[in-house]
# Entry
Amino acid sequence: MPDGFTNPPPQRDRDALRRSLLSTSPRMLVPTVELKSCCAGAQEPAAACCGGAGKRRPDFLLWGSLAIFLVGIGLHLFFSGVPQWVHLFGHTCHELLAKTWWGLLAGIVAVAIIGRVPKELVAAALGRGGSMSGLARAVGAGVLLDLCNHGILMVGMSLYKRGASLGQTLAFLIASPWNSLSLTLILAALIGWKWVLIFIVLSMVVALITGWLADRLVGAGKLPPNPNSIDLPKNYRAWPAVREVGHSLRPSWENYRRLLREGLAGSRMVLRWVLFGFVLTAAIRALVPLEIFQHYFGPGLMGLLLTLGATTVIEVCSEGSSPIAADLLTRAHAPGNAFVFLMAGAATDYTEIASLRETTGSWKATLAMPLLTVPQILLIGWLIQSGG
# Structure
């Protein structure tokens, strides 16, 4: 044995050691261990846990787009003696804000509420991913939800994060941007109920086919599955979860503030691309007159292709797309072009493309939307043109 144990200390030394230990704070008796920094090997940015030890890089796209957008609004409101293109840029920024603020705000609130909904409840509401009933529910939700396309985009990304399949997410986005109740009434006043009902039914068909194809490709391993998807436990009861969500939304100013914070945090990724899309739209409208496009939007295959190109380049909010589509139908006598303008605008919207890429993390899943929908839209538009 070691020497220290062969010759024990004298009794007086042992008594002194005992008194020292008894007078020591209990915290001092805890064995010391090496505490690793929360930043070591952390998945999240260092600033999230280390109080600025490693600061997160500024979101230049978000803040830069917001700054340019606000400058444009300021030019519209406070400066009149500016060049025409600058005036048009500012006017477009102000118009986009005036037409979409309610949809963006509603989308932020919806994102906050969906964030408090358990994934199991979302799965129960939307049905099983990959099934026709689940796709039909997603399409119905897209048609009935009264939001502009930018608000719908926030909701769609939240549904994907809560477990909706890729097919359900795409079907929801494609069916919804201009099919809300308010815009349906506006469009009906411009072109009549006959064409509105035809367009709604055809858009639902495109959404269902696209969602079905996307889910089949996911099942075949050609597209990545949603990593957030879950399987509902047996005998799952939705009503207790509904009550719990309702309890978490009880009215109070503090709760409203938390909802706003949660909604802004959950919508930040989408807001970044929405603001960028607003700035790009304003720049295109300021530098490329819309009359140039409208001159070539007549009936025929070339008109359809030019319409597709125009609606891809010019991002128009849902409120703005309805009057343009009505003008294509009534003045250019091209109902097929009107359908292509409404539908392809949603399928090729670069705000949706960028948001889908960031949400799914896959270019394959992102590009599936335009690749699956555009051929259908062009075919239906050509058939409408031929039969009209």
Q: What stands out?
A: Confidence is low (pLDDT under 50) at residues 1-6, 21-54. The longest helix spans residues 253-287. The chain has one domain: 60-230+249-387.
